[in-house]
Write a structure and sequence with these properties.
Elements lengths: L3 E7 L6 E5 L4 E9 L5 E6 L1 H4 L10 E5 L16 E5 L5 E7 L2 E6 L4 E7 L8 E6 L6 H17 L2
Antiparallel strand pairs: 1-2, 1-10, 2-3, 3-4, 4-5, 6-7, 7-8, 8-9, 9-10
């Protein structure tokens, strides 16, 4: 089993994207479910990829409910570009956010995932490298990555 997994993100649109592994297996999709009266999105961990990894745990879907005009609701912001989250297993993680690179680290500072935009000649928009140790929280990791990308696009 490899120590890391690479997913390629197709589409720069954080509201509508797909992620595939290097073998072309669909891993995750982000889609709009409804926009009336407010936006609802769904992130789905897809079976073709998930069935290849027995370490995956947690939910296979997550939903995003936005307020009127895609407002963020309550966001706790600090004077930092980092964004924190606690997974269902109780472990704390942090996304270090930069314009073209996000890095997710655990509470010990160990890198769990890195998202980087691609080069112009690439057919995909970004590359996400996930450490094997992060598979237990991969849906939560993808959910928070998606929220961070939306926050960046909307200047939250």
């Amino acid at each position: 089993m490899s120590a890391q997994h690479v997913l390629l993100q197709f589409s720069a649109d954080p509201w509508n994207a797909r992620f595939e592994d290097l073998e072309g297996r669909l891993a995750f999709t982000v889609t709009m479910v409804d926009e009336n009266p407010n936006l609802i999105m769904k992130l789905t961990r897809e079976a073709p990829w998930a069935q290849q990894h027995s370490d995956i745990m947690g939910p296979s879907n997550s939903y995003f409910y936005f307020g009127p005009n895609r407002t963020p609701g309550y966001l706790k912001r600090e004077a930092s570009t980092s964004r924190y989250f606690v997974a269902q297993n109780g472990k704390e993680f942090k996304w270090k956010v930069a314009p073209q690179r996000y890095e997710c680290v655990d509470s010990k500072g160990t890198t769990m995932a890195v998202w980087e935009t691609s080069q112009l000649e690439d057919e995909f928009h970004a590359r996400l490298t996930i450490k094997n140790a992060a598979l237990a929280v991969v849906t939560e990791l993808m959910t928070t990555l998606t929220l961070n990308r939306i926050a960046q696009v909307l200047n939250w």
